[in-house]
Please model this.
Amino acid sequence: MKVRIDEELCISCGLCSDICPDAFAPREEDGIAVVIATEKELDSLSCVDEAVESCPTEAIIVE
Ligand code: SF4
Model:
């Protein structure tokens, strides 16, 4: 699974890293979400889909 964050859309709400902390983390300087898991790890994390659906600005892009 290939996932990226659209930094223009991310509002640094922290929801994705709360829901799926193994896949997402807030960037230290501005809270913008970053993907911290490998493509393979993302495949086995069931919380990724929930985070994608929960993002208020649809900033998590599954490619
Ligand atoms: S849930 Fe969406 S808007 Fe909130 S931090 Fe994550 S990517 Fe950004």
About this structure: The longest helix spans residues 47-54. The helical segments are 15-19, 39-43, 47-54. Residues 3-62 form a domain with the Alpha-Beta Plaits fold (CATH 3.30.70.20).
